[in-house]
Fold these 3 entries.
Entry 1:
Amino acid sequence: MTDPKKPDQNIDDDWAAAMSEQEQSEQEQAEQQGTGDDDPWAAAMAEQAEAEAQAETPSEPDAEPNAQSASDSVFRPLAQSAGGGASRDLEMIMDIPVKLAVELGRTRITIKQLLELAQGSVIELDGLAGEPMDILINGYLIAQGEVVVVDDKYGIRITEIITPSERVQKLNR
């Protein structure tokens, strides 16, 4: 193969010359590293290896090999005791707040209908009058109940606790 600008010169010879120059420069670099010239990467790697070796060997001869961590003395172990393990586990979650919501019903509307809503508009829901309301905990249906008024405030009286199989059926509606 030849260069169109220099038809007399062979490109393969140029490649061979370039490759030999590269090999020579690599050999020179290897020799310089072997003679002790400063290589910052090699020095950094050697320093890191030395620091790791010092960290593995204890600097104090009287250090205890079976020393306990501070967490053992600060935190109680979570091992269950024979008698009160279940009640203790339940106590751990008693103060976790949850969101309770009561749902009157649902509906689907288009964006056009949404934009047409104004003060005084009525939205029809799929729930029937007198039908029990859904009680949701963190968005999950757990019970149904009826609305009550106590001292001018709304409340809900639980009339039915939903079983897990009923929960699955209610989610599909």
Note: The helical segments are 11-34, 40-56, 70-74, 85-93, 111-115, 164-171.
Entry 2:
Amino acid sequence: MKGIILAGGSGSRLYPITIAVSKQLLPVYDKPMIYYPLSVLMLAGIKEILFITTPQDQESFQKLLGDGSQLGCDFQYAVQEKPNGLAEAFVIGEKFIGDDKVALALGDNIFHGNGLGSLLRSKVDIDGAAIFAYPVKDPQRYGVVEFDENNKAISIEEKPKEPRSKYAVPGLYFYDNNVVKFAKKVKPSVRGEKEISTINQMYLKAGKLEVGVMTRGMSWFDTGTVESLDDATEFIRVLQNRQSEMIGCVEEVAFLHNFIKKNEIKVAVKKYGKSKYGEYLQTILREYER
């Protein structure tokens, strides 16, 4: 399975913060926002990743992330000229996807929780599509999935005025190769965007959509507003300062999953210097050598 991280959009809900910088490059506590969805795809074992950015921000992402070789990965880049919707990612990435399955992660979504890695890895060989559902207080902001009495998904709507359930669909999706064909059929909605919910509806109609409800041990943040960005930052800060583990450390994920070896960690330690991030990588190195 390959991966796509959609890191485009104007970030207008965060203005004036995002006028001069991409939303996905903003700090969430001690690291750039993009590190979090990147670490999630890497947790799933995905090494080939396409970053879709705005034309003006691509150079900054390339400067930050490079070609991925330092993480044992292969990073490629593409441009979304205008924020035409999530479904367009698969049309833009058609050549990159080729004949493979693909996971899409939104660059402003953060996930954390026990068992997350094993849950993600269970979806990489999907026949059809796999999405998730997460209970929220304001489902009208998201795609919403409705279940019947047997907990089987029966409908999906994009940002409905009157949601049929409290279950929002987070920005993490797993698809087989048919997603490219489906994405090409998606027409712009009344909002003028090619909605990801339309693709999910196609899989649902075909009987090929899995929906997993995220348990209470899982946390999800959509950092599209100032309040949610602040909440995510506070969550990461509190958790990291109380525990000995760092959330979203891409070098650690790469090391633990054997994407890279000890020498690459040493190079990263030197790169990050005396920062908190660099000091954390130094502790990983000491634990390994012990």
Note: The mean pLDDT is 92.
Entry 3:
Amino acid sequence: MSDHSNDRSARIRGLTIPRSLLPADGRFGSGPSRVRSAQVDALVAASGSVLGTSHRQAPVKNVVKRVRTGLAELFSLPEGYEVVLGNGGSTAFWDVAALGLIERRSQHLVCGEFSQKFATEVRDAPHLEDPEVIRAEPGALPSPVSSPDVDAYAWAQNETSTGVMAPVRRPEGAGTEQLVLIDATSAAGGVMVDPTQADAYYFAPQKAFASDGGLWLAVLSPAAIERAERIAAQGAHWIPSILSLTTAIENSRKDQTLNTPAVSTLVLMAEQIEWMNEQGGLAWADSRTRETSGLLYEWAARREEVTPFVDDPSARSQVVATLDISEEIDATAITSVLRAHGVVDIEPYRKLGRNQVRIATFPAVPPEDVRALIAVLDHVLDASA
């Protein structure tokens, strides 16, 4: 780094940001994401009747039912589609899918850390053949290719590590017996989707649903449910109970999970889903995240020091904006001084190793906070020049 760059980084770290510029809420993390105060109030209200009680009894089962029916409303689920949940996060669902949804071989689109991890899980599964992998460099978007040699297609709707967003639609030429498995962890609830274009649309609560981790949730098509039941009935390989999709389906139909869930996570999520439905559902959430992410991309177009990491505008995420910072400016200095002023979690994904900021615009993040964040960033860049 040049002396000029070192001087500018030192100026940034020594800045004091006027309180008048700061957003009302400085949490912009890509997960865990900000939790609204109304959710915390709901959690306090539940402390006397739900927290610390059995997950097999009505108080907790009613919360699970609120989550399942709320998601069915949010996604406008057609007849036969079911909301299923289980213990563990989305990473656990990769194993669930490898054991209970992929019969022989799958195709994976890889464009970042999380899409790569699922492909690796499947490659290491001893009962499956090595998957087809279609790879793109981080920041670019690969596309599925119809293949008669696979029984499942898998990709991430939103690659959280890079801010690449992919469409959810069945590959052209795909057979009716081939499943589509969509990792929607950072997209679900913030991006419009047609659920009939996927057979397993799975995610975790700590992104758009403003809750904590520890659960996976999946919208399953009738074809996915039939596949899971058939694989389980064949008994060709051992499936641990905690990773059994059929066990999760059976328990979900009773509004419960196999093992004790994090009840506070369910309460926070139920409150968030109902709030989103009250605002106008998925169409409202999609419009809101398009607006807030759009503010950031418009700002990047105005600042010569800032460039969207994803070159293709159509592939830029509307819930996780990744913005490269010019090399003469140390992005860690920016994130450090912002953190000291209560604006947190805009660091890039650690393994990506970019000089950038990564800003989440989930539905709980209002436009006025994004505008305030932009004003703060302008102040830091201008004052340090």
Note: The first helix runs from residue 3 to 13.
